[in-house]
UniProtKB/TrEMBL annotation:
Residues 20-61 form the DUF6533 domain. This is DUF6533 domain-containing protein. It holds the Pfam family DUF6533. It comes from the Eukaryota. The lineage of its organism: Eukaryota, Fungi, Dikarya, Basidiomycota, Agaricomycotina. It comes from Tricholomella constricta.
Length: 326
């Protein structure tokens, strides 16, 4: 490209780079911060569905988000070398650089979709446990997962006129993508699909939190479960909404500004939710073994006291499915 430098585009490209490096730092810091809990509550425990999902989500997220930051922090693609090389070599290098700038987003979109679906499966497993592991809720979550994967596949798989470039403005060198400037939108539907899923899961979490608002007061695990679930869905919903708005606005050097935060925070929140549940579970079992070594519970008869029933409920709420880990 040639022309005057677009100062606002250069500043916005800097914002995107800073966002990606900040999120890479955050995911690395969170990994080190939770490493002890990971070893204690996952590596030392039996293998389960939740354990596999947690380890996959945790390590994939670290690698995926740090690699994204590395790409965005590169000063290249740069065309300064063209001054000192032959025209033929310059043309060849320009083709290669343009290819890197545009095809990076194919890899990023596929990786992002995989991370989002993994995160949603983790959260759906938690809601599945909160709803008593019924077949109806399982069928609903299977439909949601399939529908989400189908929507993402259609958005990124069907041919579109999405702009992918390594120089969005003259002199502004960064991998950037956007919808066409003719007013049509395509990538917006990706964020819309995620928002629909997040909205449904948020409503399910809020309903269960309201339904168990009384019983949750007596159970540390249920308090933790409802609080963390609602907090996650409420927070990440607005992050995804902000991304949808940015893509609807469709400024090529701003579209990726919120993407890094949606990748990193959704993964961190989901992983912390699993750590929190396991922490309460295993510590709860330790407390039960310490303080109630010889207590046995029987089916409540009409004359049984409320104290026995409350204690029984507390023990039940601190026990989860060891096979699935949820």
């Amino acid at each position: 490209m040639s022309g005057p430098l677009n100062l606002s585009g250069l500043i916005q490209a800097g914002w995107e780079r800073n966002a990606y490096i900040a999120c890479a730092t955050l995911v690395g810091y969170e990994y080190l911060l939770q490493l002890d809990a990971e070893v204690e509550f996952f590596w030392k425990q039996r293998w389960s569905i939740a354990k596999c999902l947690f380890l996959w989500s945790r390590y994939y997220s670290v690698g995926f988000n740090i690699s994204n930051a590395v790409i965005f922090m590169q000063s290249k693609p740069s065309f300064e070398m063209y001054v000192v090389v032959s025209i033929l070599l310059s043309s060849l290098m320009r083709i290669i650089v343009d290819f890197i700038g545009s095809t990076f987003f194919h890899w990023q979109n596929t990786g992002a979709s995989l991370q989002v679906i993994t995160t949603h499966i983790i959260l759906e497993l938690r809601l599945y446990a909160m709803y008593g592991s019924t077949r109806k809720i399982l069928a609903l979550f299977m439909c949601l997962t399939f529908g989400e994967a189908l929507a993402m596949g259609l958005v990124f798989g069907l041919p579109s006129r999405t702009v992918g470039t390594n120089e969005p403005f003259p002199g502004v060198l960064i991998c950037a993508d956007a919808d066409p400037l003719d007013g049509t939108h395509w990538v917006v539907y990706y964020w819309a699909a995620i928002l629909v899923i997040e909205g449904i899961l948020l409503l399910l979490a809020l309903y269960k939190a309201w339904q168990h608002r009384t019983s949750a007061r007596g159970s540390t695990l249920m308090q933790q479960l409802t609080r963390d679930s609602v907090l996650y869905f409420f927070t990440i919903f607005w992050i995804y909404l902000a991304n949808l708005i940015l893509w609807y606005y469709n400024r090529i050097t701003l579209d990726e500004l919120g993407t890094a935060f949606s990748f990193v925070l959704s993964s961190i929140f989901a992983n912390k939710l699993l750590i929190s549940v396991r922490s309460n579970h295993y510590r709860g079992l330790s407390d039960v073994d310490t303080y109630l070594p010889s207590v046995h519970f029987i089916k409540r008869s009409p004359g049984q006291s409320d104290i026995s029933r409350t204690l029984n409920n507390t023990v039940e709420l601190t026990t989860f499915n060891e096979r699935t880990g949820v």
